[in-house]
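> call design_seq(struct)
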């Protein structure tokens, strides 16, 4: 039930009182003490209940005896409807045992009508207690909310936090652990606590690293390392461990390990897969039948595979990496021309150029390459044999053409001569000597 803000001194008071005179006396006494009051008087159970349900009071002042109604019933109603409101019983005749019983049931205090000079003090204390109680409830509610939020967050992340106390015999035992323990390890917190130390989950090969980076820490030191755990299901998982050793007086052994465990298994598996992929790719590149290389745009060789070295007649990649790239181009300025084009076009395909080997031999090559930043990556195919075959073929075609031209010309000349001989024989009355086909 929402209450009025009492920090400004304004009080809304519900008075259960069948005597109008007593009501006026109480109100005047409180006004005289400086209270800014709005007091509502009721004298029956129905009115009392109705006002409690409809209005937001800061205080209830109740007479003990009313016709068909008393302070015990009023207190129960008040506790049911608005339990946080101070309930003060004011009576002209109430025994000590009755007063104590009211206090046990939840009444804030009681004041005798002949001692109303106590009432301002009792009200002031009751309001202060109510304010403190509300603040405490708000703090408790916020604490519960924070704890709930922390539990939810802990259940969704892969971190584990813990502390271990040093035991007799220089061994540690877990005294506190929280987080996604079961999600990471497969074990419950109680199961791991029963092991005394989570190091029981560490595989044999990593036990020395665990001891060096965690168990052997001295007060004031901290460490971190990557370890492998045996999951409850039998799988081996990677974790990153952080630990710090501090001295805490009045604890067993005066030494405490605080630590955190982070699940890095996905990252490690991804790294391992990446390494395997890189290894396969490197093997593929190294053993490719065509030359593969990387250079910088300003002429530094960064990588050359085996086929590239063999093509240019170098003994090893390291030897080729020490060579100025422009020196392997046959024609001066050819390297600069190539770089200018690839910077402009970003990638080149079937770029033909002549290279010179370490031994001075010429290689006709085709380059496919692209540039990223200042790094040029390319593939080179030696087409020297093909170019040589093309030249031989071209030369043979030229020879055949020349022979053809000679042959065809000679054949036409002989036909003309035979025709002239036949014509002369015919004119002299003799029989033609040559039979000319196709004429």
């Amino acid at each position: 039930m929402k209450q009025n803000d009492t920090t400004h001194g304004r009080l809304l008071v519900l008075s259960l009182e069948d005597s109008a005179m007593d009501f006026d006396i109480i109100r005047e006494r409180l006004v005289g003490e400086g209270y800014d009051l709005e007091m509502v008087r009721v004298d029956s159970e129905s009115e009392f209940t109705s006002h409690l349900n409809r209005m937001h009071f800061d205080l209830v002042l109740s007479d003990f005896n009313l016709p068909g109604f008393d302070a015990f019933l009023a207190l129960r109603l008040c506790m049911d409807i608005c339990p946080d409101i101070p309930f003060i019983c004011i009576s002209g005749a109430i025994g000590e045992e009755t007063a104590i019983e009211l206090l046990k049931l939840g009444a804030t205090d009681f004041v005798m009508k002949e001692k109303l000079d106590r009432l301002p003090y009792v009200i002031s204390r009751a309001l202060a207690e109510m304010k403190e109680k509300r603040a405490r409830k708000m703090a408790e509610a916020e604490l519960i909310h924070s704890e709930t939020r922390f539990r939810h967050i802990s259940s969704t992340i892969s971190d584990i936090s813990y502390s271990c106390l040093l035991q007799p015999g220089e061994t540690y035992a877990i005294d506190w652990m929280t987080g996604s323990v079961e999600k990471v390890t497969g074990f419950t917190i109680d199961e791991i606590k029963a092991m005394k130390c989570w190091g029981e989950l560490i595989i044999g090969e990593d036990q020395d690293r665990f001891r060096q980076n965690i168990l052997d820490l001295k007060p004031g030191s901290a460490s971190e390392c990557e370890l492998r755990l045996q999951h409850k299901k039998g799988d081996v998982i990677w974790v990153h461990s952080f630990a710090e050793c501090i001295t805490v007086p009045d604890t067993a052994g005066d030494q405490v390990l605080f630590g955190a465990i982070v699940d890095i298994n996905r990252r490690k598996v991804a790294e391992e897969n990446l390494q395997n992929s890189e290894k396969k790719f490197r093997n593929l590149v190294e053993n490719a039948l065509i030359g593969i290389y990387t250079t910088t745009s300003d002429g530094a060789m960064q990588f050359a595979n085996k086929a590239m070295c063999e093509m240019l007649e170098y003994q090893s990649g390291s030897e080729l990496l020490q060579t100025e790239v422009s020196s392997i181009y046959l024609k001066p300025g050819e390297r600069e021309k190539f770089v200018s084009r690839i910077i402009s076009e970003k990638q080149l395909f079937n770029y033909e150029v002549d290279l010179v080997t370490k031994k001075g031999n010429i290689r006709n090559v085709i380059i496919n390459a692209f540039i990223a930043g200042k790094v040029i990556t390319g593939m080179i195919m030696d087409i020297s044999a093909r170019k040589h075959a093309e030249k031989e073929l071209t030369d043979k075609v030229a020879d055949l053409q020349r022979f053809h031209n000679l042959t065809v010309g000679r054949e036409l000349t002989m036909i003309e001569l035979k025709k002239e001989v036949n014509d002369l024989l015919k004119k002299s009355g003799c029989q033609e000597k040559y039979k000319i086909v196709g004429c």
